[in-house]
Queue: 3 jobs
Job 1
Amino acid sequence: MTAPFSSLSEFRALLQALPATDAAAVAAAQARNGQLTKPPGALGRLEELAIWYAGWRGDARPRLEHPQVIVFAGNHGVAARGVSAFPAEVTVQMVANFRAGGAAINQLAKAFGATMDVLALELDRPTADFTQTAAMTEAEVISALAAGWLAVDAAADLLVVGEMGIGNTTPAAAIACALFGGTPGEWTGRGTGVDDKGLSVKTQVVAEGLVTNPDREPLEVLRCLGGREIAAMAGAIARAHHARIPVILDGFICTAAAAVLALAAEGALDHCIAGHASAEAAHRALLSKLGKQPLLELGLRLGEGSGAALAIGVLKGAVACHSGMATFAEAGVSDA
């Protein structure tokens, strides 16, 4: 199997043709929700989540049984500029930890019944330093987008994408600033926990990258300022939309990848919800730009897909209540 695009223009066209939610399934799910043994609105956001999920699955009474978590890993040329509290070799070490089952995301995927895949993207060949040139060529970004697209299991009924890549909050900040404006300082945070000097370096690196790469077309922003794992997340999210697989977005870096799609095509993120608002300074601002209200706010800033994986439980609860509860008629309960 190969991806159905070989250039950014083809990928851009594909985004314009993504399907909409199943309106009939939404209407039927709304009708069912109104008949369940509870006061109207008593389950709060769980009700709208279940109806949203039903629309994307095309089933008024869906089940959520096969969630997939994919962690993409990539290395960044700007890491050499001292933008992270950890050295670049930690990316390779953490990939080994994921594959051995020792990371937080492994435990969360297991806890919520998700399969987990790890895809390392040319870790021995970091992207270019985007303060000097574009981070990726068109061939490189297409390769990463395609890797994400092809990593999605067509049998999955929910997708979570996470990332590992030392220094990758810096390209995420650059992407957000390029897409939505503002100053580099407004979008640049402490990431892995850099001190004040490190934060100043990160902010300067983002500023330099924006000057070096002035094109603001969304997919060009991804190519010039992103990374392979960020592009792969975008490819996977797009593939999920194409296959009507709902997506839970993770933290700042995942949301930056998703933002590229949102600005490239109207409605590209209609199949996505925000799993959480992370402790990374600009994540909530980015979610606000995308019109996404987070399900959880627990001070997480780990990445890996961890916050989104934790939110699988919330969505599973919403779907279980919607599809499993009895109606007033079935239970013999008065709905007066």
Job 2
Amino acid sequence: MPATVVVGTQWGDEGKGKFTDLVAEGVNVVVRYQGGHNAGHTIVVGGEHFALQLVPSGILYPGVVPVIGNGVVVDPAVLIAELDMLAGRGVDTSRLRLSGNAHLVMPWHQEIDLMTERYLGRNRLGTTKRGIGPAYADKASRVGLRVQDLLDPKIFRQKLDIVAKEKNAVLAKVYNRLALDPEGIAERYLEHYTPRLRPYIADTVMVLHDALGRGDSVLLEGAQATYLDLDHGTYPFVTSSNPVAGGACTGAGIGPLHIDRVIGVAKAYVTRVGAGPFPTEIDGELQDLLVERGAEFGTNTGRRRRVGWFDGVMLRHAVRLNSLSEVALTKLDVLDTLPSVRVCVAYEADGVRYEHVPYHQSVLHKVEPVYEDLPGWQCDLSRATTMADLPREARDYVEFLSSMAGVPVSLIGVGPGREQYVRVAA
């Protein structure tokens, strides 16, 4: 059976966790294919909030095999703490499979991440300082340590000693930081982390292909989003991996012909965390209102998100980049109280109108949004379960966004709960 990809279409925080969880109910395997614990998914089940950082959303369904793919970078301490949290809340974690080819986040990655941001000052990127970027940098430099290295203490120590010598020199001579103790690190990783993670480590490429060969359904779950993609995002204010749908192939180890459905998750307005261009950003009382109504604070960091009107130009480009087959629209209910809502349909800069995202960053930083105003609905959507339950103005808004995207809206979120959504008839 073909695979499905769920990908964010904006700057992250679109509510992918909820819709991945919703789609996961009918699949056999859910795979996280990139990112690290810098991205959080929040799922609300029966009034309980589950904040997941590394474990795929499918863990909450007893029949689903959750997989952390080779494209993820893993901090063992964070993963173990997350597994303990889930087990303490009655969730069976024994089904999890962790790729032996996934790279490890090491202590020096966090130190370098922290110091790099500090030294950049006003030009800082706004990273979460979790060591994700430096871990991917070591992966690309071919000096990274992988999960499978935990299973061979001799190899682990050899690699650790070589890399630690170089990293300690950087920390001491460039950043005036104390050297890290390789022996202490080796002891912690091999004696504490390895026994806990050993039962989960697997050849996840074979796990996925065996599942596909049996006709099982596979869901591929991205972290972050299209405009944080290392190649296609608003560089350099991006993550260090490829969240776009194409990244699911390399990050999980399957070919593109296995994928026949790509769901793009879009918030009914736009948010982003940290620095970088944001054409439709709003401020003042309206921003405060949407932040409050939408609980726009980072799942992991607690950082307040920047807020803006829906950007149809971004969505059109995300459709192209990801070959989206449909859109899942989240947080429509957050706009309930507004007398009117705005949608960016184009950009303007230096007398030129852009109906696509300009490739040149200097242009993108100075564009002005061209808006169309639509009437608001000013009523509570939280109990809606069908399109007929939505007022005409809300339906018109959804249809307008769908027409801009050129693909159908298939699901609409009207609240944080697992059951608070509207499925749009095909």
Job 3
Amino acid sequence: MSSEIQLSLFNEESNFDQRELIPTDAKIPVPPGTYTNMNELAQHCNQCQRCELGSTRTHAVVGRGHLKAPIMVVGEAPGQNEDETGLPFVGRSGQLLDKILASVGLNTEHDVYIANINKCRPPNNRVPTPHEMAACLPYLLEQIRLVDPKIILLTGATSVKGLTGEKRAITKIRGQWIEWEGRLCMPIFHPSYLLRNPSKEQGSPKWLMWQDIQTVRAKYDEIRQSDGI
């Protein structure tokens, strides 16, 4: 696509359907404010061909939960269950995530919105490539803008790296608050990691997750109190 078309992509006087052009090439930007609501974004994700994953998906997996949630959970990429249903975290990992949230009185009806770095399932559930993450990141940034969460939980190292660029191992940074774009982010273990490490002994991943989610709940309560909610 020519640089002239790219420059005029969001010119209101343009004679072509601007948004139809956004997904066709990862080089075409998706500026902040492109979408007015999540349904609009979801329709675009299901048409998207910004990377090769668009050719192998069953459904784009955009998100689930409260559209103005104060807490947003960001995962890595859809698995088979998610690809089939079009919803994030609906398999065993998702069931565990819901239980973790519920353990401190949080749920997707009132407090939480769940999304992923990538909206399409990588073949064989492999880790998304840097190109795939970069091509899909603008959609996540638009989701964050639309939901406007106070707290973002980043599940696993890929999620942390995909949004913040932080490359340290999740074991080194989990449970620590990171400020990103004026928002509080906390890296936490991915639920699938907890499924592979079922011990609940002190110092185990599940034990550490319990500490982390209590810290998140305390910060949430602190924010609500300061906002007079």
